Amino acid sequence: MKKVLVIDDEPGIAQLVSWCLDSLGLEVIQASGRDTALQRARADEIGLVLLDFDLGDEDGLDILPDLRREPGLRDVPVVAFTAHDSRRREAIDSGVASFIARPFSGSQLRATVQSLVAGSP
Questions:
Q1: Which band of pLDDT confidence, cut at 50, 70 and 90, is reported for residue 108?
Q2: Please, what are the domains in the chain?
Q3: Count of CB atoms within 10 A of residue 36's CB?
Q4: d(CA 24, CA 120)
């Protein structure tokens, strides 16, 4: 089963994402910030990362280089997943595979995730 790492400091978001992606057969794992995200990435084989920008004291985009240094995440698609639509260009320039503005629809999330995990092993 492919795993999606949701990096968001709101626990309910991971539950909502899990509910939306259930039909795709994906397991959702939640991390609240840099340290837990890196721990989860080292412990599980991740197929996709959904990364929020507003993580309390952390900026999600600041975490992106750390994720890319992890051997298991180097080539894993990262989706910016945030209410800060004004940072869309910054996110794309930083190398994210896609951008989902919150609030989002379940169908939008499923379509984006499915297109990114379809070709991965």
A1: very high
A2: 3-114 (3.40.50.2300)
A3: 15
A4: 14
